[in-house]
Design brief:
The chain is an all-alpha fold and about 675 residues long. The chain has 23 helices and two strands. The chain has a two-stranded antiparallel ribbon. Helix 5 crosses helix 22, helix 6 crosses helix 21 and helix 16 crosses helix 18. About 50% of the residues are buried.
């Protein structure tokens, strides 16, 4: 066979494909539920963070998870080798996912630290190994398609994971979903170890050459200043970039960015031009990832709150059987805002009044609170005619008059009792339909009222006094309701269920992008192959510029989605998200695998993994900007302006890259790559 015309990909690629598929399974499973988990209340298993804190943590995590590959790439290049680094990183990430499965604020942040460090050792080095397999003259013409195949593996994992996440969360809770991510990561490490004999020949530690900076010196000049600058950024009075963590992250990146600029100007002439070209492309890539990674934040919120996720009745049976349908309960407790608020308050008091050892009823109350909360939010921007709860059971006139004329009851308590009377018993926690259980609630609530009154008498702090008074108001209100339920038969098993809705779980929308990647990758490979045969294939930088333009267009699709909601008073169809993800996926396929390929082609061989770390640094900054942009979601009332902003940012990057194309192509030609 002619050495320059091989059409067969190396066997090691398929082991790297399988490893990365399972690693991305875990990574994107976690990322797909990360924002929802942080927003979910503590009582229902989430972290209970505010939307602004959620966006801050999301952006910081995504930024740091792609910042550490700079360090991992350097250590693999100089000291550890790629295989050892990948195994170390994979095991650290698995440990992080398992820590997330524990419902604790401490383990939450420990888990994020483990995942961030683990990804630093894993991500740049597996991408470098892929490139190394195509370093010979016989294979180098297959490098772009090799990276496309590798990238498809990433997205098969990203597609599958969200179905697993939805199933585990709906049926078992957040913890089991995160544990599934850890198991996926362990499978990936196992595949890698099994395939090591097909990979070891391209795992070569590159010695330091004369004139190169020592590893220790690089770390001293980058990592140490990164922490120092980060601390300075955090402590700067005021918030230059919105929050202290934004300031710390962006300012902390400056020494690393400075190191790459130093490297570009201090290398010999040809290497210098190659590094400068890569840094120019990295700068434009930042804005792509600032927009792209909003799929886990702003677009997830859009799917949760503003997308019509109702399943067709034809598939709800199968979805129920597979445990994949999210239930939205058409309870009378959500028929209007006032009823919802008194019902949630009453159920919260009921849950806290139950003895701690009564796990069954406490869990039942927590699940009811979660369903009521999610149901009310889902129905908020549906037209009244589409809310079946409004057509539910009505309390008979005699019962309603009796409640209304009870002089002991306050208005919120009357509203609670009417709501309970309208609700079918099977929609209530069983503790509220049994007289024996209600007697226990009366006893426990009486005890808590006395404890709060004693605490209030001793309290000096005004904030503590207010909290205790609010708690006493809620307890006394619940006590009146329990007393009434003890004396009257209000809960009726004969009340008919109002039909519930079954929804596509929000996590499943995270699978749209990887679905499009898997479907469109062969098409894109075919298109580039067609142009290659015609000798008109765009250069790798040109593909990246085209990808930026297409990415900008995806933001315009979401502008259309906003207008379809008539000022957010209705829900948009799922097709808007499907279309937007489809467009951005074409942009992604022109850009992300091409970026990996460009780094592998153009980097000086002795610092390939380090430059791959630079590529991930660009992703890191883009990801942090993604969180910063997403934090504007709550602050921009006209949501179309949020997406217009996204469009403008990416189009600006595209214009800049097109203006640099002639120079970039010249550098590519000088280095004998295309």
């Amino acid at each position: 066979m002619n050495k320059t015309s091989s059409t067969k990909h190396p066997k090691g690629l398929w082991y790297l494909f399988g490893t990365e598929m399972w690693e991305r399974f875990g990574y994107y499973l976690m990322l797909g539920i990360f924002s929802l988990y942080m927003l979910d209340s503590w009582s229902t298993g989430g972290m209970g963070f505010t939307p602004s804190l959620k966006s801050d943590i999301y952006g910081t995590y995504l930024g740091l998870v792609y910042l550490t590959p700079f360090i991992g790439g350097l250590l693999a290049d100089r000291l550890l080798g790629y295989r050892r680094s990948i195994v170390m990183g994979g095991l650290m990430m698995a440990a992080g996912y398992f820590c997330l499965s524990i419902h604790s604020e401490t383990t939450f942040f420990v888990a994020l630290a483990l995942i961030i460090l683990g990804n630093g050792f894993f991500k740049p080095n597996i991408s470098t190994l892929v490139g190394n397999m195509y370093s010979t003259d016989e294979m180098k013409h297959l490098k772009d398609s090799g990276y496309n195949i590798f990238y498809m593996g990433i997205n098969i994992g990203a597609f599958i994971c969200n179905f697993v996440a939805a199933y585990m969360r709906i049926n078992y809770g957040w913890g089991h979903a995160f544990a599934a991510a850890g198991i996926g990561m362990l499978i990936g490490v196992t595949i890698f170890v099994l395939g090591t004999k097909h990979i070891k020949h391209v795992d070569v530690v590159k010695p330091v050459q004369e004139g190169d900076m020592s590893t220790l010196k690089i770390l001293a000049l980058t990592v140490l200043p990164m922490f120092v600058f980060g601390i300075i950024g955090y402590l700067i009075p005021g918030n230059l970039l919105g929050t202290d963590t934004n300031d710390a992250f962006i300012i902390g990146c400056l020494p690393v960015i400075g190191f790459f600029i130093y490297l570009a100007f201090k290398s010999e002439a040809r290497e210098s031009r190659a590094i400068k070209a890569l840094l120019a492309v990295f700068t434009c890539i930042i804005l792509f990832f600032a927009i792209f990674h909003q799929n886990g934040d702003a677009l997830t919120v859009w799917a949760e709150d503003h997308t019509d996720r109702e399943m067709p009745s034809s598939i709800t049976g199968a979805a129920d059987a597979a445990g994949m349908a999210q239930l939205v309960e058409n309870s009378p407790m959500i028929k209007d805002e006032a009823t919802y608020e008194v019902s949630i308050s009453f159920l919260n008091v009921t849950q806290s009044a139950l003895p701690k050892e009564d796990f069954k009823n406490r869990k039942e109350c927590a699940e009811k609170i979660e369903r009521i909360d999610k149901s009310y939010k889902y129905f908020t921007n549906l037209s009244k005619s589409d809310v079946p709860a409004l057509k539910g059971n009505k309390v008979d006139a005699v019962t309603a008059a009796k409640i209304e004329n009870d002089s002991i009851l306050q208005d919120p308590e009357k509203l609670t009792l009417i709501s309970l009377a309208e609700t079918p018993s099977q929609q209530l926690p069983s503790v509220l339909s049994e007289k024996k259980s209600i007697a226990i609630l009366v006893t426990e609530t009486t005890k808590q009222i006395k404890e709060k009154e004693v605490a209030l008498a001793k309290a000096k702090d005004t904030g503590e006094q207010k909290a205790l008074k609010d708690s006493l108001t809620a307890l006394n209100s619940a006590q009146h309701v329990y007393d009434y339920l003890q004396k009257n038969d209000l809960i009726h098993k004969s009340n008919a269920d109002v039909p519930n809705l079954k929804l596509y779980s929000t996590e499943l929308y995270q699978s749209i992008n990887p679905f499009w990647v898997v479907v469109l990758t062969p098409l894109m490979v075919g298109i580039w192959g067609f142009f290659r045969r015609k000798k008109k294939e765009p250069s790798t930088p040109a593909k990246i510029a085209i990808g930026l333009v297409i990415t900008a267009l995806s933001a315009l699709v979401m502008v259309g989605a906003v207008f379809a909601t008539n000022g957010l008073s209705a829900k948009a169809g799922s097709m808007w998200l499907l279309a937007s993800y489809g467009v951005i996926t074409i942009g992604e396929l022109c850009l992300s695998p091409m970026g990996l390929s460009l780094v592998s082609k153009l980097s000086p061989p002795r610092i390939t993994a380090l430059m791959m770390g630079g590529f991930f640094l660009a992703i890191s900054v883009g990801n942090k900007l993604s969180g910063m942009l997403s934090s504007l979601w709550e602050k921009i009332p006209e949501k179309q302006n949020f997406f217009f902003l996204n469009f403008g940012l990416v189009m600006a990057a595209a214009v800049i890259l097109f203006l640099m194309l002639r120079w970039l192509n010249r550098v590519m030609k000088e280095n004998n790559v295309n």
